[in-house]
């Protein structure tokens, strides 16, 4: 990869990128849901102010990927790994993997013992990435998202 990827903590300067990078994949495969709109249009209130974290992947000074750790209401899980989006122009360059590894380290630093995520089986590159990061399918879990048909967890030791 010729261009260096830097992963930095989110700041308000990246709010439009956070929304755009997620809306791109959501609207390509699914439809926007109310929970998407709330977190993507108000990441400070819905994620950061509740103790969550958002990372931004930069190629040069351009935001090409984002991901969030959202404090979890699910029992036994401190955070949900969510809102991972990588620009279609830069997919296949390992940016999702770098973001995922960064988020796992951040969750550990925040004292998390277990992470979970929600996805959909049609997103095979995403599921493959999550498996490479160590996530395994949770059986019998439910989701507030219409599009979610698979939940995965990662034990952080």
Automatic annotation (TrEMBL):
Keywords: Transferase. The keyword Amino-acid biosynthesis does not apply. Gene3D superfamilies: 3.40.630.30. The keyword Transmembrane helix does not apply. It comes from the Bacteria. Residues 16-157 form the N-acetyltransferase domain. CDD domains: NAT_SF. GO terms for molecular function: N-acetyltransferase activity. It holds the Pfam family Acetyltransf_1. PANTHER family: GNAT FAMILY N-ACETYLTRANSFERASE (PTHR13947), LD18367P (PTHR13947:SF37). This is GNAT family N-acetyltransferase.
């Amino acid at each position: 990869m010729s261009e260096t990827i830097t992963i930095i903590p989110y700041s308000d300067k990246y709010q439009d990128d956070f929304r755009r990078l997620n809306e791109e994949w959501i609207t390509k495969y699914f439809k926007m849901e109310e929970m998407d709109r709330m977190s993507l249009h108000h990441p400070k209130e819905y994620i950061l102010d509740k103790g969550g974290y958002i990372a931004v992947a930069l190629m040069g000074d351009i935001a090409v990927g984002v991901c969030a750790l959202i404090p979890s209401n699910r029992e036994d899980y401190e955070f949900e790994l969510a809102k991972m989006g990588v620009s279609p122009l830069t997919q296949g360059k390992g940016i999702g993997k770098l973001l995922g590894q960064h988020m796992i380290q951040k969750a550990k630093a925040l004292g998390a013992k277990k992470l979970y995520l929600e996805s959909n089986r049609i997103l095979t590159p995403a599921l493959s990435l999550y498996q490479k990061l160590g996530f395994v399918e949770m059986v019998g879990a439910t989701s507030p998202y219409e599009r979610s048909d698979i939940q995965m967890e990662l034990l952080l030791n």
